[in-house]
User: Which sequence fits this backbone?
């Protein structure tokens, strides 16, 4: 059995240590966007830095899309050990809201944009920009509860 498996492996790799080209490769699974990162240097994060220094962190626990809107569940953690506090809030943002004469959005999962302005503010597509805005809104709401 070991010899048969070794022969299969050699046939698969062509004996060269690299995979032999496949006649009909399987299609790659659709790319799943990475979770939204914490907002970068928003006024809220600057305020939290000033108040708590490195004793706070924010993470996006969940994110989803609902029509032309994105919704994230953000969690803010302040302090460490027994004195740690955690707050959770939802943040929302519209995808493709007109900005500077630009209209963008998506239809059946295909993103589109037309008009002046090109890509969404801050780079990336409008859906990712909306996720960043929603995460920032969630962080602001969490900070308000402190």
Assistant:
């Amino acid at each position: 059995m070991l010899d048969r498996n070794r022969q299969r492996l050699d046939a698969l790799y062509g004996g060269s240590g690299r995979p032999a080209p496949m006649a009909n490769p399987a299609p790659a699974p659709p790319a799943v966007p990475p979770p939204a990162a914490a907002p970068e240097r928003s006024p809220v994060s600057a305020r939290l830095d000033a108040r708590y220094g490195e004793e706070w962190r924010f993470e996006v626990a969940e994110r989803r899309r609902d029509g032309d809107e994105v919704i994230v569940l953000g969690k803010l953690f302040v302090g460490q050990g027994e004195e740690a506090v955690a707050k959770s809030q939802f943040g929302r943002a519209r995808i493709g809201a007109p900005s500077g004469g630009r209209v963008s959005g998506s239809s059946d999962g295909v993103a589109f944009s037309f008009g002046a302005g090109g890509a969404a503010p801050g780079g990336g597509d409008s859906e990712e920009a909306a996720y960043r805005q929603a995460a920032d809104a969630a962080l602001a709401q969490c900070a308000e509860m402190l």
Residues 116-124 have pLDDT under 50 and may be disordered. The CA atoms of residues 78 and 84 lie 6 Å apart.
